[in-house]
Amino acid sequence: MAQVSLRRIVKEYEGQVQAVKGIDLDIEDEEFVVLVGPSGCGKSTTLRMIAGLEEITSGEIAIGGEVVNDIPPRDRDIAMVFQNYALYPHMSVYDNISFGLKLRKFSREEIKRRVDNAARILGIGELLERKPKALSGGQRQRVAMGRAIVRDPKVFLFDEPLSNLDAKLRVQMRTEIKQVHQTVRTTTVYVTHDQVEAMTLADRVVVMNHGIIEQVGPPNELYRNPATIFVAGFIGSPAMNMIPATLTQAAGALSVQLGDGLSVPVPEERTARYAPHANKDLLFGIRPEHLTEATRIDKQNLAPLTVKLDVIEPMGMETLVHFHINGTSVCGRVDPAAGAVAGTMMPLAAHMEHMHLIDKTSGKVL
Amino acid sequence: MADAAANRDFPRAYTKAGSLHSERLWALRVSYVSLAIASLIFLAPPFYMLITSLKTNTEMADQTLSPWLVRDPTLEHYAAILGNPIFLTFFRNSIVVTLLVVAITMVISVLAAFALSRMRFWGSQALATGVFLTYLVPDTLLFIPLYQIVGGLGLLNSIWGLVLVYPTLTVPFCTWIMIGYFASIPKELDEAALIDGATWPQMLIKIFIPVALPGIIAATIFAFTVSWAAFVYPTAFITRPDQMPLTIGIVSQLVRGDTFAWGQIMSGALIAALPPVIVYVFLMDYYIAGLTAGATKG
């Protein structure tokens, strides 16, 4: 059990490409932190630097208060689960799981006790004699996790562990990973490009892009209050709508002009915050679930917005409606019973207390 | 309604399936014929040797008889050659040299291939290419300078000279095979081992060697064959009968001037060809078995 801290970590390849551009991050003991971002954002590189599989160009990594920059992976007391499982093909499941313990000269009884315990946690007790090639994808993934658990390391590192599984199994294994973490409470750093995985697993999500950290925070915090245009667009599915807009002030009240003659009023409590940005080119951000049918009885701050629907996507529990505002494609979520029909006009309501305004030039959410 | 049914293109679909079947049949026929011709070409010489080794000297000398048939089979040549102490010496020399060369080759090439394929260091790429280029220099070019070296070391006329020079033939190629095999092992496997606490030597012994066993066996078969069948180097370096391996021993000791002891040459050559056959039979299964299945997704 340990904290992990990253101080101004930089990773350069061949002296030219900067994969990681000086990131700072503190991971608490027993915390589950997910690094998420698109391909090439530096998340895997960061994880591999924590593991010691990549050298750090500059900066400092500490695990449990001890700087590990020059400590080889085997002495960092970490365990890692790889995307392609990396099981030893010539060894049985038991030998795969116990390999690290044998190398560390644990007694035979202790090894057996630990392997049995891990097998019980993961439900792979009956597979211990099999070779990896006789296992399904999900079972291989469990064995890979077993190999990490038995070591009882200071930190678990997961490198996109679910990417190779099919959709159904991925959801199931996601739950299992969370359960395992709740059982063993080991500090965990988990890398994924899937924002749903990030949201569901993490105590805190670290959103990375182009080698820097865009935002760190609990999943709901990131969802509700994204700090940058990147986080706003990356977290959430369907993604947040971003409509080019200008802010106008009339009689002390602010309103957002969306083009096409549409405008929505800014809630009173935000007037002070947004006032300095009046008349600038901005993006109006609003999530699909905050663009609903107008008939919904809700609290205040509902702004009416009548639009012509282009496409309807019934999802069962809700219906997604797609339309255009001033040339920008926009998505809303309405009740399946609201009677949305493609090609017709529909009165919608924007829940303005959930709106965001984004500065186009700085990319910051105001 | 009936028209519509008649116009549906079921028949064409059937023809399509039929043509696929006949194409496959033709491909099979062509393969069998080619394989039969290849087998004939490759098996004719050993068969000729076998027939000749079973003939008496009189039958061999009789020009009127077919060379492909034997009338009075006899094992006298086999008895003669196996009773000849010098032949047994050749055999022993070949075994000693080959075993040592295979051992030396495998130790050097496995270590070299591991380093070249996994430990990234300055010049490792150039070295790997260099290793392969060495293999392209034929031994008929190398034996003259090597003669100087072996002579300088005082190892002419000794099987130890052969043990020293054969690896120059086997190590480059075996290293090259092993680099290919090690390169096919997923990188995550060594990373997992590193994190599990393995040192580089442990990783080699506990992970790489078992996983790359098919490659190691392929390399072993190659080293064995090259060493067992080497002809140029022993011809150049060995003149003393008691130090000769089988390859040159048979031709140099069983030919006296113009007299060829054909029966003994043929039976000796057949016995000499036996060990590689045995090695192939035993190792082929391992060689073919793909051990890497299941290492990663796939």
Explain what this protein looks like in three dimensions:
The complex is a heterodimer of chains A (366) and B (298). Chain A is of the alpha+beta class. Chain A has nine helices and 20 strands. Chain A has helices at residues 43-51, 93-103, 108-122, 137-150, 167-184, 195-201, 219-224, 229-234, 271-274, and strands at 4-13, 17-27, 32-36, 58-63, 66-67, 78-81, 155-159, 187-192, 204-209, 212-217, 241-250, 253-259, 262-265, 281-286, 291-293, 302-314, 319-325, 328-334, 345-351, 356-359. Chain A has a six-stranded mixed beta sheet with strand order 6-7-8-3-9-10, with helices on both faces. Chain A has a five-stranded antiparallel beta sheet with strand order 13-12-11-14-20. The longest helix of chain A has 18 residues, at 167-184. With 298 residues, chain B is mainly alpha-helical. Chain B folds into two domains: 2-61; 76-296, MetI-like fold (Orthogonal Bundle), CATH 1.10.3720.10. Chain B has helices at 2-7, 10-53, 57-61, 76-82, 85-118, 124-136, 139-152, 159-184, 187-196, 200-211, 213-229, 232-237, 246-253, 262-288, and strands spanning 255-256, 259-260. In chain B, strands 1-2 form a two-stranded antiparallel ribbon. The A-B interface holds A 51-53, 72-74, 78-80, 82-90, 99-100, 103-104, 131-135, 137, 140, 147, 151, 164 and B 186, 188-189, 191-199, 202, 206-207, 210-211, 213, 291-297.
Chain-wise SSE layout:
The complex is a heterodimer of chains A (366) and B (298).
Chain A: E1 4-13, E2 17-27, E3 32-36, H1 43-51, E4 58-63, E5 66-67, E6 78-81, H2 93-103, H3 108-122, H4 137-150, E7 155-159, H5 167-184, E8 187-192, H6 195-201, E9 204-209, E10 212-217, H7 219-224, H8 229-234, E11 241-250, E12 253-259, E13 262-265, H9 271-274, E14 281-286, E15 291-293, E16 302-314, E17 319-325, E18 328-334, E19 345-351, E20 356-359
Parallel strand pairs in A: 3-8, 3-9, 6-7, 7-8
Antiparallel strand pairs in A: 1-2, 1-4, 4-5, 9-10, 11-12, 11-14, 12-13, 14-20, 15-19, 16-17, 16-19, 17-18
Chain B: H1 2-7, H2 10-53, H3 57-61, H4 76-82, H5 85-118, H6 124-136, H7 139-152, H8 159-184, H9 187-196, H10 200-211, H11 213-229, H12 232-237, H13 246-253, E1 255-256, E2 259-260, H14 262-288
Antiparallel strand pairs in B: 1-2
Helix pairs in contact in B: 2-14, 4-14, 5-6, 5-8, 5-11, 5-13, 6-8, 8-11, 9-10, 11-14, 13-14
